[in-house]
Each structure stands twice: as structure tokens, then as C-alpha cells.
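Sorry to interrupt, but I need a hand with the structure work. Please put the record directly below this note.
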Amino acid sequence: MLTAEQFAKVFDMAVLAQDTQEAAIRLACEKARRYQLAALYTTPCWSPVVADELAGSGVRVGVGIGFPYGTPTSRIKLAEAEESLALGCTALDMVINIGALKDGNLGLVRGEVRSLVQLCGDDALAKVIYEVCFLTDDEIRTLTDICVEEGVDWVKTATGTEGLPDVHHLEVMNERLAGSRTQLKLSGVPRQFTLAACLWMLDMGVTLIGTRSAPVLVDQYKDYLARRA
């Protein structure tokens, strides 16, 4: 069974709403630092604030690239990634070009994924966001194979702005990850995501969960451990 500290490192917390103000970002940084979460994600304009607030904390500075639609040109997405790294980001989650994947333009998709991994190198984690609600099982398999082959650190279900992922999506993704170093991140979950659901997802092979409710879930897990003691 995970300790409370290990359980906290299962979570990437995200504050991504368009109307977010600086005070909310700083409060989220304080919570991420206090709970020792895996990472705090914001949109790129807040990266300098997050990097400053989390310096020396052990919590990664996360950012969404091409978020939430994945439709900027490849050049723009990669420029965004380069600037994010320069601003101190240590975990980059890039949304794929969904239409390109569905058109079979795998050269564009692979090129963006490969460039992200190369840019991150050993200094940052490279994660790829799918938006599974738009994809067939075969498209999910194809994209997962590309991500595994290119050395992506985590494949991620959704942005949270469109349809929710379900258990079947996780199963299809996970079957293509077997034997690889690429791991599975569940994101785009409802805000009422429960502790029971977290534990079930971890049993299914998920190793990271992205949710704004991370502090609440960590507190619930601490209570759960106390009741079992």
C-alpha cells in the first residue's frame, strides 16, 4: 500500500481556466508545495510565477503546450515548448493535432512528438495529450505506438475541456504500453473524482492522475490510512 507521501506524488494538479488570476496561481503553488504533489500545471503565461514559487520544492513546473485544441502550427507549438523550458518548466504536456491524426497525417503527428521529446531531453518530462473522446480504438493504438517509439514519458487521456475518458480508453492505451518505458496518465476527470476511483485507476496501471482536486484526495487518503491503522 502506498504511503501518504507516495500517494501525493501520483497527482499532477492543474489550474487552467481562462479567467485565472495571479492570486489563484500563487495559492495553487502553495498547496502543491505543501502537499508535495508531482507537479502543478498552468498555461504558459504563468510559468515564471510557478517556477519562482516552486523553486527548490521538488514539485515540477508543468505547462500545457498547444492547449487545449492542439491546432497551432508545429512551429508555434515547438516555439512554445522552447520558451516554456527557458522559463523553468520541467514537465511539458502537448496536445496532439487531432485532425491530423484522424486524416492519417502521421508524419506531422510523429514530427511534433519527436521534437517535443528531443527538446525536453533529460531536463523535463515529455507528455502527450490525446483527447480520447474524438479517437477510435485504432487511432488510440496508432498514437500510442508513435509515443512509445519516440520515447514519450507519459501518454495522457484528455485536456478536460471536451469529453471524459472512460475505462475502455485506458485499457486500449495500456495494452500498447506493455514492456515500454512510457507510462499512463489519467486526466480530464470530473471534479467529483473520488478516492475509490483513484485507487481503481492505479490498479489498472495508471501512474499519474491530473486533477485540480488533488489536495482533497490526498487528505481523504490520509484519513483512509488512519482508519486502517
